[in-house]
Every structure is written in C-alpha cells, then in structure tokens.
Write a structure and sequence with these properties.
Layout (H helix, E strand, L loop, with lengths): L2 H20 L27 E5 L5 E5 L20 E3 L12 H13 L5 E6 L6 H21 L7 E7 L10 H7 L1 E6 L1
Helix pairs in contact: 2-3
Length: 189
C-alpha cells in the first residue's frame, strides 16, 4: 500500500472518529420525542442555600434556607423563605399556578426596591437538541419576566439568560431528574 493511500485512510478514519465523538444520540424518553431540554456538562453548584423537595401534589419546590438571608443588609429580609426556583412542564414555558404567589412576592420586592436587579436563568432537561433547549430555556425565562412586568416590575430590573441543558441540577436520565432540570432560577444581583 502506498504512503498516499495510507494517509487518505488515516484522514478518513480520524474524521469519522471525530464526527462520531461529536454526535449526540437520543435517549429513551417519553413517547413523544418532541425536542426538549443531550448530554450536559457538570457544574458544581456552589450555592448551598437552595433546598429541593416535594410540595403539594408532588410538585417540586425550592426555598431559601440560608439563615443569613433573613439578616442581609440589602433589605432582602422580606424575601427570606421565598421560592427562587420555578419549575415547568415538559416542552412548556407556561408559569405554573403554584408559582404565582412566590412571583408576586418577588414583584413586590422589586417594585419597592427600584435599584434591585435580577437575572432569570432559564434551563431545560437533556432531551432535545442543544439549540432547541437554549430557545426553550429562553422562553421560560421570558415567561417569568413577562409575569413580573405585568405585576409592575420595570423591565430594566430584569435580565434573562438561557443555559439550556448545560447546567443541570440533577444528573440522572429519568423523569425525576428531568423535572428538576426544567426550571428558571431567580438570582438577585
């Protein structure tokens, strides 16, 4: 075999290996394989002030449990214990009714503190393409943003960002993990 043919085979083989390594494959999901939230990069969550658990009717909830949050000098004591993570249904960006009370408290705080700023971080689970999940995370963050602006919060106080599937809180490949990853997190700046 000549050196030229060997070089061509090497290039083709390396290209095929690279393409195979970069491709994603579908995992076993719901019967509806509508694109939703592929493998994601792990991120160590340094914020330990969030606790996740089951609320009424099995709904997932998140509350601030950091004792220091109630004594901050920035006036955030009125938000101690208020939910900061809001969950969404599969392939949806509709604010759930159980989220409205906590969002109203955030809106009240933001209206009374016009210098306060928040970042709404939209997330999706691992199912679906990366591009679809980025768009879905953005739609979810914008849904929360719209809800807050309807409550009187100035749009200039709100920033939205989408992480898609890239920042999961649960690394499993089942419905429980997917539910925890379909969320919007409220972060105060």
């Amino acid at each position: 075999m000549s050196v030229t043919k060997l070089g061509k085979f090497a290039v083709i083989g390396l290209s095929a290996a690279w393409i195979a390594g970069c491709s994603t494959t579908a995992t076993d999901t719901d019967s509806s394989t509508v694109a939703e939230d592929a493998n994601s990069t792990e991120q160590a969550n340094e914020n330990t002030d969030q606790a996740f658990g089951a609320g009424q009717d099995g709904a997932m909830t998140s509350v601030i449990v950091d004792e220091n949050a109630a004594t901050n000098d920035n006036g955030m004591d009125s938000l101690a214990g208020v939910q900061t993570v809001f969950y969404f249904d599969f392939d949806k960006s509709i604010v759930r009714p159980e989220s409205r009370e906590a969002l109203a408290k955030h809106a009240e705080y933001l209206v009374s503190h016009p210098d306060a700023r928040i970042v709404l971080e939209g997330h999706a689970d691992e199912r679906g393409t990366r591009e679809y999940n980025m768009a879905l995370g953005e739609r979810r963050a914008k849904a929360i943003s719209r809800y807050l602006t309807i409550q009187g919060v100035a749009a200039s106080q709100i920033e939205t960002v989408s992480f898609g599937e890239e920042v999961p809180v649960a690394f499993g490949h089942d419905s429980n993990a997917w539910q925890l990853n379909r969320r919007v997190e409220v972060r105060y700046e």
